[in-house]
Design goal:
The complex is a heterodimer of chains A (358) and B (257).
Chain A lengths: L18 H20 L2 H26 L7 H18 L3 H23 L4 H21 L1 H4 L5 E2 L4 E2 L2 E2 L3 H24 L1 H11 L1 H6 L4 H27 L1 E2 L6 H14 L4 H24 L2 H4 L4 H16 L3 H14 L23
Antiparallel strand pairs in A: 1-4, 2-3
Helix pairs in contact in A: 2-7, 2-10, 2-11, 2-12, 3-4, 3-5, 3-10, 4-10, 7-8, 8-10, 11-12, 11-14, 11-15, 12-15
Chain B lengths: L5 H18 L4 H22 L9 H23 L14 E4 L2 E4 H23 L1 H11 L1 H6 L4 H23 L12 H12 L4 H21 L4 H16 L14
Antiparallel strand pairs in B: 1-2
Classes of the chains: A mainly alpha (358), B mainly alpha (257).
Amino acid sequence: MRFLFKTHYNQDIDHLKHGGDRFWYGLLLVLAAAAPAALGTFYLGELNLVMIYAIAGVGLMLLVGYTGQVSLGHAAFLAIGAYTHSLLLGVGLPFLLSIVAAVLVSALVGAGVGWIALRMTGIYLAIATLAFAMLTEQTISRAEWLTGGFRGLAVPQASLFGMPLTQGWQHYYVTLTLLVVTLLAALNILRSSTGRAMVAIRDSEISAESVGINLAVYKTLAFALSAGITGLAGALFAHRLGYLSPDAFTFLISLQLLLMVVVGGVGSMRGVIYGALFIGFLPQLLAIARDTLPPQIAQAPGLEPGIFGLILVLVILFEPQGIFGRWLKIKSYFQLFPLYRRATHRRQKTYLRTERLR
Amino acid sequence: MVNFAQGDLMMLGAFVAVTLIGDFGLPWALGLLISVLALAVFGYLLDAFVLRRVLGEPQFAIVMLTIGLGFIFRAVAGLVWGYDPQSFPTPYTGKSLRVGEIVVSYENFAILLGTLVLCVVLFLFFRHTRLGIAMQATSQNQLAAYYVGIPVKRVFSLVWAISAGVAAVAGILLAPVSLVQPGMGFIGIKAFAAAVIGGFGSIPGALLGGWIIGVAEQFAGVYLPAGFQEMSAYGILILALILRPQGLFAQIQRKKV
């Protein structure tokens, strides 16, 4: 066990608590920066996708993991970010400005959804966000004058500082920078009073309200932040896709994002990265698994959603805290060896109670 | 408990009925009975082995779990029965009922009649039987229900059995009108919309909600440009959630401390 000797109050809210943390995260950053030199085009592209997922996951985690509001419609914000970005690039706006605009538009829409969602909690909220995502998908496919409908919309070539973004490594560095910025921003929000208010709302709305947190303001804010960050991921995702059409942003994508958050571990930013790695490399794993299965099962269409569903069910049943929770358990097992007790990580059960009158 | 896999249970029910009646040649009524019973048993076992484990976890876990189950059901149905839509033979296919000026096909009439019977039976069951009241008590407060001696776990399994059986009936009623295919469960989202508009836990509310959505969809299809028909259900849902989130027949009030 490591005991920290604190000499300053700010040490309580440091992102990196001690030298070990600084070393490992520094090493990770160096490795991430050096990746284009070591990896081939294919794996670089996959890593790029993983980081885009991670950005979207940070957005969703702020909402689901830290504010406790379930959203089944985050594909809609991804779509809004992607379409805004490509349309604005198409009119000739510079890359950075258009990304900022995409974030702002998504955040505005998110604030609207959040404002509507104020009156709802739990499942009602999940259903409302689902309905919102369905509406967005329909709107995009019908508004052909703007989005091209199902014919699709080609994403224009972007250029940054006068340099056209054509190579995989250029996109990689853009995404990496934005991911680091997003993560830092999210972590800083979480240690500010805004973040504390969000966590308080997650833990108990009534007690949060009692200590003077304005539920309406903070819930709307959480939605706006989450939607904005997801919109940023959408803008980057547009470049990855190259060609936008409404069926790239279906319910399955919303579910994947949620799966990422759940598998990684609800309530931790590190969980987002684990979840993104998992979702990003799952198709490859499935492709390998397909070779070992009998062909009539392996070649069946629609198998992938089923496997997503199976993983979701297994994770919720057996490790509700996801990969991050499992990591914490393994870590404390070795730290406390041989005194580890399973009960340390047991969660209190909360039995459902509704305020039904009849 | 909220079930996002209800539509997929419905789909399974329709497929079981198609297999029994169409492929094995069982008489229609017998096939219907067996498939409803099969789904009820399936629902019971599903709860006993899977869903019971998340009792006491946050609601979010249940939502995610049922969504995951829905995806699994769809994939399994696709593997077993294939993705081609299948038609569903009934003794009343193609005939129609004439009442004065109005002509109603027996398929639609069966849906109407089946829904009414089902609603009356469920209403009486929840209102007047010991088990029905125990279920209501469990849905209101699990811990209190346990304290007064209700076997909460078994009640939950039975609730799932009933809801799976009802889903099978819905699937069988719907099957002659829309073909049977793994994706037919998506209507479940609209059923959800109906339940929310009416207010969760209220059967007359669910009926009224379903009626509102159905009528609005038809009118949107006739009077508004293309595309509004698909959107209208979700639009109405969002509108209803803004204006009256507790549903038309509200049973849930703001918690007071």
